[in-house]
């Protein structure tokens, strides 16, 4: 059974399906950007939000983007290894719904970016925000561009923190 029954843990299939939805949504949006934008295009949506097309051969904030190419395979291996570990963790903690949701988001995001690295050799980023408050940290206040996979990873990390805070509070 895929759906949780009252008092029972959701099945692993639910969490894997959720991760697959993240990968699918991420790849659909990236395909649209690749189809309608040229590399470097910027289309303002609001005064603080643009759709762009940039390529990131590194990791978060373009970490290791200037490396000689080995980083592509390193990040592919890291994403795949993390996914195997996440499946093991979900199987080990099936009753922890927030935890399983969090790691499903992280796995879906990681695999979405792994698909990009395998297909293109880089990750397609397309969401760009500009906030005046960010100017001391980022040139012009432009936060580094990102994508849906990155958003899922961030949501998953935030949920992991929340899960841990709630776990500690319950233990008191």
Description:
Helix content is 56%, strand content 10%. The protein has 172 residues and is mainly alpha-helical. The protein has a domain at 44-138 and 147-171. Strands 1-2-3 form a three-stranded antiparallel β-sheet. The longest helix is centred in the first third of the chain and has 25 residues, at 12-36. It is globular, with a radius of gyration of 18 Å. The two termini are 34 Å apart.
Uncertain ranges:
none
**How are the strands of the largest sheet arranged?**
1-2-3
Overall geometry: globular
End-to-end gap = 34 Å
List SSEs in N-to-C order. Answer: HEEHHEH
Global structural class: mainly alpha
What does the average pLDDT come to? 89
Please tag this protein with its features.
172 residues, three-stranded antiparallel sheet
Report a brief summary of the structure.
The protein is built from 4 helices and 3 strands; from the N terminus they run αββααβα.
Topology summary:
Blueprint (H helix, E strand, L loop, with lengths): L11 H25 L5 E3 L4 E8 L13 H23 L4 H24 L2 E7 L18 H24 L1
Helix pairs in contact: 1-3, 2-3, 3-4
